[in-house]
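Supplementary Methods, section 5.1.

A reviewer requested that the exact input to the structure prediction be made available. We therefore reproduce it here, unchanged from the version used in the analyses.
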Amino acid sequence: MSKNIEKKLPIPAQIKKEYPLSEKILTIKKDRDEQIRKIFTGEDNRFLLIIGPCSADIQESVLEYTGRLAAVQDRVGDRILLIPRIYTNKPRTTGQGYKGMLHQPDPEKRPDLLAGIIAIRQLHTRVIEETGLTSADEMLYPENYRYLDDILSYVAIGARSVEDQQHRMTVSGMDVPAGMKNPTSGDLSVMFNSVQAAQSRHNFLYRGWDVYTDGNDLAHVILRGAVNKHGQSIPNYHYEDLMLLLHMYGKRGLKNPAAIIDTNHSNSNKQYKEQIRISQEVMHSRRCNDEIREMVKGLMIESYLVGGAQKIGEGEHVYGQSITDPCLGWEDSEQLIYQIYESLRQ
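The structure derived from this sequence is encoded token-by-token as follows.
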């Protein structure tokens, strides 16, 4: 085993000391967290859009994207709160392929986890400093969350991680909203079990420490569609699915019942332009039913500067185009945000 160990990585406290946050950033983070909390508790009726690339790859293109989002936020802030989706570590179904900026700060070079830890902390920090927005990331590795826990305003637990006990218990110690996706099988009871576990108190082993948590009352569900035994996508964003979600929440007695609808992945069968239609349908369902409107707090949308996707190392790199799943381009994304904004007037 020792032959496979490359180097000892700094603990989170060391990285935070080396790359500290300014008072400006701390103030922005505190204010944004409070605004987002109030949306999940129902004190603020604004709508959330967690929007951004499938994977954050090149810092400059991600920062250009979030800068454009910030300009839109100024125009829609009375009805919508935008959370940049900046996912820096990516699950891979087969274990192959680009695993995100955490592993490869430069997608064209070999993995370097230390450089990756520093790069993702710097990226999230720059987003706050340069745009005034705080971001969302996926917690692929629970033991690494502490490198970013003072920066993130939203955390997602993916479909392949949601059944894992360590993920659930780590979420129970967070003080920001955490969305638990339905598993790839589509079993909603698994997702609800995960939310229940995350909202509960725990005592467990974390990074070599004996830790206690109080539970996260902002843990909630994310619907992302499912896959059947034949590999066919089964969407779960329709009105009937949302009514079932309401029923299941009613039986569980969980705190702050809330749902985010992922418009891509198995809901769109990765047909990225379908996200526009899916968003519009979810907004229509909210208008048809007051209980659905109260429960569905927002959408998760995959979007980047250039629509579609590209493969690493195949021809010239297209600046601002996804190197993982295909995303909406900026023009479509901006238009969709304004469409959602107008629909919230009704």
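The two ends are 61 Å apart (CA to CA). These observations are discussed further in the main text.
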